[in-house]
Specification:
alpha+beta; two-stranded antiparallel ribbon
């Protein structure tokens, strides 16, 4: 699947499931394509912090294969880290959470 849609919050998207998701042998019923609704990273982080969840650590999962062949997995991991790691702590009443400052 290619990235083709604009980066937008709450946008509905749908695409066919990959073959590995379920058995496609004739079963007498049609399985509809899944509907997904996008959420921006800022919406997710801001919603969590409003509820008293504090971000303690953020890091990128990346590779270090500087001589990897372009197009390889190792090259991709080195030049465009695809994942983020978060460490969160729940702290009700933390500065910025509901009850301590007005909600936007």
């Amino acid at each position: 699947m290619a990235i083709a849609q604009p980066y937008a919050d709450e946008a509905m998207t749908s695409c066919p499931d990959q073959d590995r998701v379920y058995d496609r042998t004739p079963a007498g019923r049609i399985v509809r394509e899944p509907r997904e609704y996008t959420q921006t990273l800022s919406r997710i982080v801001n919603s969590l912090t409003r509820e008293g969840v504090v971000l303690r650590l953020l890091s990128e999962v990346h590779g270090d294969a500087r001589d990897a062949e372009p197009g390889s997995w190792e090259h991709f991991m080195t030049v465009a880290p695809p994942w983020l790691e978060f460490v969160w702590h729940y702290r009700p009443g933390a500065p910025g959470s509901r009850g301590t400052v007005p909600k936007d």
